Amino acid sequence: MLKDITLGQFFPGDTIVHRLDPRTKLLAVLLYIVALFQAKGWVGYGLVLLVTALCMAMSHISPKNIFKGMKPMLFIIVLTALLNIFYTAGTPILPGWIVTWEGIDRAVKMILRIVLLITGTFLLTYTTSPMALTDGMEVLLGPMKKIGVPVHEMTLMMSMALRFIPTLIEETDKIMSAQKARGADFESGNLIQRAKALLPILVPLFVSSFRRADELAVAMESRCYHGGSGRTRMKQLRMERRDWIALALSVLFLAAVIVLRRLGL
Amino acid sequence: MSEIIVESLSHVYSVGTPFQKTAIENISLRIPQGQFVGLLGHTGSGKSTFVQHLNALLAPTSGKVLVGGTDINRDKKARRDVKWQVGLVFQYPEYQLFEETVFADIAFGPKNMGLKKEEIEERVREAAGFVGVEEDLFQRSPLELSGGQKRRVAIAGVIAMRPGVLILDEPTAGLDPAGCRQIMDNIRQYRAGTGATVIIVSHNMDDAARLTERLIVFDHGHVAMDGSPEEIFSQPEKLISIGLAVPQSTALAMALREKGLDLDGAVFTHEQLIAAVRKLKEVGAC
């Protein structure tokens, strides 16, 4: 049950998209998002859709996986669509109806925008390991160290949090089984009873998380860990030719979308 | 009566996904009331999956588990009721302690059974007595106790439900030798006091050899060997080929036999080894 969470999941693979430098992918996704919000007409949206489909095909991520991860967002998508359909002024589709052609047009574009936004970011997290992602982020945010932002510490915290999600899920499963063996009931009762029933899981989980954090701190200190400055990496990030090509294509893509917008398409 | 009957039990994890894995396959066995059973097998042999079927924590992919004649997976109520009948103590049970006091934590199981206050108190005292937790610890926080004490409080939490079958997964893992001995004594005491069936999952061959009446050896999701300790340890080669160790005395006896000493019978405790060597000496063979 708990193992079905796909949030931030990484699907290992060996496609060109997987092999790109994480910095390239981060920047490309940034450009992609800007382009997505620049698209206005149907031609513009069509172009973004085409590029997204192309990236998906290249990374061998099946649409099924993308939609599975999108389920929690379904509510927001439907709500946005409904609001746009009913609250847009224009020509009614039938005389006397509140639903207008403009409303439908906007609703479809809104759905498309949200779905594409999620798909784009999923493509990033599905094809990039969390470690590579935080490494890339640290380098990209590097300049902010000059104004005193603790970039290294922040990205370290992020990678540790990501690293411990599966561990915590496993631990929760174990504690749940142990409490069930003592007759704990998590499935029946009203909301308050159910919330109360979570206590026997949460308390041990907190205790063990603190213990784990403590052990991790000791382990890091005993290996003389002292933060970001002067630290070298085992895996150096290197921009290859394919990275520059990918970046150039991304810029080109953004430019194309902007031109289309200017042309009113 | 809580006789356990397992009929062609199989369990497959993550059916229909790329991670599909058969954990146990077609296991059938009978454990009569009151037997002291040891489950052996290396990591991933399916023994943990197997014991979680005995109190309906896991539902079989196919096959049946009967406890005291009832199918424990018959309906929701049966699945819950079997928890009182078959008490399962997980590995490192001290990590499941959560109440503010030792007393409240031991009382968690009986409280879930819906017992009256007096009955709960009586059971908590009884359970604490079996595992040697003194009453002046009752109002302390379980988190302040030492590792061995925590473990015993956690075991008391299961014993307080007065299960007819007590299953313990690696109950001595991570304890010092004195702590191990104490836990094993507690378990023996519980069995002597209540006549319960006890099933211990263990890596410790010496414990398994000394205490149990029957050993079941798991290998790759199947029962590879099933019999009394005498029967099992008289085939040490088979145990070793499965990847398990043998008791120290059996290992020593094997080494002596290799050197040409003709030791008698199955040897798996120190006493038996000493007796066997004495016997040889009397005959004058060494």
Summarize the structure.
The complex is a heterodimer of chains A (about 260) and B (about 290). Chain A is mainly alpha-helical. Chain A contains 11 helices and no strands.
Any overview of this molecule?
The complex is a heterodimer of chains A (265) and B (286). By secondary structure, chain A is mainly alpha-helical. Chain A has 2 domains: 2-128 and 240-262, no CATH class; 151-222, no CATH class. In chain A, 69% of the residues lie in helices and 0% in strands. Chain A has helices spanning 16-19, 22-38, 42-59, 63-70, 74-86, 101-127, 130-141, 151-181, 191-197, 199-222, 241-262. The model of chain A has no long low-confidence stretch (mean pLDDT 86). With 286 residues, chain B is α/β, with parallel strands linked by helices. Chain B folds into 2 domains: 4-230, 3-Layer(aba) Sandwich (Rossmann fold), CATH 3.40.50.300; 247-286, no CATH class. In chain B, 42% of the residues lie in helices and 21% in strands. In chain B, the strands form 2 sheets. In chain B, strands 6-7-8-3-9-10 form a 6-stranded mixed beta sheet, with helices on both faces. Chain B has a 4-stranded antiparallel beta sheet with strand order 2-1-4-5, covered by helices on one side. The model of chain B has no long low-confidence stretch (mean pLDDT 88). At the A-B interface, helix 8 and helix 10 of A face helix 2, strand 6 and helix 3 of B.
